[in-house]
Amino acid sequence: MQENRKTNTEGEYRDEAAKARFTTTESRDLKSMTLEELTDVMKENGFPAFRAKQLYRWMHVSLAREYSEMTNIPNKMAEQLSREYPLTTVRVIDRQISKIDGTQKYLFAMRDDSLVESVFMRYKFGNSVCISSQVGCRMGCKFCASTLDGLFRSLTPSEMLEQIYEIRRVTGERISHVVVMGTGEPLDNYDHLVRFLRLLTDENGLNISQRNVTVSTCGIVPRIYDLANERLSITLALSLHAVTDEKRREIMPIAYQYTIAELMEAGRYYFDRTGRQVTFEYSLIRDVNDSAQDAQMLADLAKPLGAHINLIPVNPVKERGYRQTQEAGVLAFKKKLEKRGINVSIRRVLGRDIDGACGQLRHRHLEGSGHEGGVQLEV
Ligand code: SAH
């Protein structure tokens, strides 16, 4: 459609092919566009440029779901836009609220009925939303429920934003923190992720501070370098979960592609380039990765990077046989790290009563329906 649309893409796309993919397949998705791109679309449709600012504000600040809500947009224009540029929204299919701590777990349907999960959590420092970046996942981590059904597709920037926007609409509460730690591997959806991050933290949009955004990855090393070069001040969390390549390969197929040494080097580069300390995520699995020697080697990896370590007692997934390290073991593991001067936190387990591990709510909804297949990453 728009042949020569100018895009302000500096640093936004890895290469021309990625840019072309966006412009050809998603150029009707106004909610995934920068203000500059939106301005071009307005001009191409014969609307004055100031309409772009109005639309952008309605979509990203007022969080309108429909053009008809946009009171300063003429009816005829709203009708034309809703025909030609349908607004991306998500539908709440299920919501569970924890009686213990008020954590809310959402199951959202996209326009094609794909399902993703998001979580709303209240902390002392503010409200946080955990979003999904893909429908399913092809990384195949052995302890993770999100990957059980394989990857169906990646989410668009607007679909990532809408998970946050819809939770904001439903709860009416301000959201100050966002973590990309739901279903999917964000760096396996790199271009959309970066676009999403820029829109989310845009001062003309919801304006969430980049420092309050965390992206968690199983460790796609080349994309970590790319992300470091984006000039974003977001926190990077590396899902480590094992301290030797051998053991990591047993539980995370990605470890066949990149060694821990390569991952550490990429983490170092990220830190040097952005000034943001990286976090290691380490899910404690009983008798698999929770020995005293594991703690010592983990400290050796974290020390040179100044990395913060997030310990997560593994959430048992019924399809997998792993068991949690018992509480005393978790505390002992933490102490060992702290003795070596490492900054450690144990992830507060929120919403215990609603649905344990990531991906379980969606997985349960899919079981029996069989309408969604996917592929596993083969290594
Ligand atoms: N793909 C990204 C983000 C998704 S999951 C990544 O791998 O980082 C967010 C974190 O939860 C990751 O560290 C992941 O390894 C961890 N995780 C997944 N399933 C888990 C489970 N059952 N118990 C504990 N942690 C789990």
Short descriptors:
12 helices, TIM Barrel, two-stranded antiparallel sheet, 35% helix, binds S-adenosyl-L-homocysteine, disordered N terminus, DNA polymerase, domain 1, 379 residues, alpha/beta, ten-stranded mixed beta sheet, globular
List the helices and strands and how they pair.
Elements: H1 16-25, H2 35-44, H3 50-60, H4 75-84, E1 91-97, E2 104-109, E3 115-123, E4 126-130, E5 134-136, E6 151-154, H5 157-171, E7 177-180, H6 190-200, E8 213-217, H7 221-228, E9 235-239, H8 245-251, H9 260-274, E10 279-284, H10 292-305, E11 308-313, H11 327-339, E12 344-346, H12 360-366
Parallel strand pairs: 4-7, 7-8, 8-9, 9-10, 10-11, 11-12
Antiparallel strand pairs: 1-2, 2-3, 3-4, 5-6
Bound molecules: S-adenosyl-L-homocysteine.
S-adenosyl-L-homocysteine is lined by residues 139, 141, 143-144, 181, 185, 216-218, 239, 281, 283, 312, 314-315, 317, 357-358.
Uncertain parts: 1-12, 368-379
Bound molecules: S-adenosyl-L-homocysteine
**Number of strand elements:** 12
Shape: globular
Count of separate structural domains: 2
Main-sheet strand order equals 1-2-3-4-7-8-9-10-11-12
The CATH topology of the largest domain? TIM Barrel
Beta fraction: 15-25%
Provide a concise account of the structure shown.
With 379 residues, this protein is an alpha/beta fold.
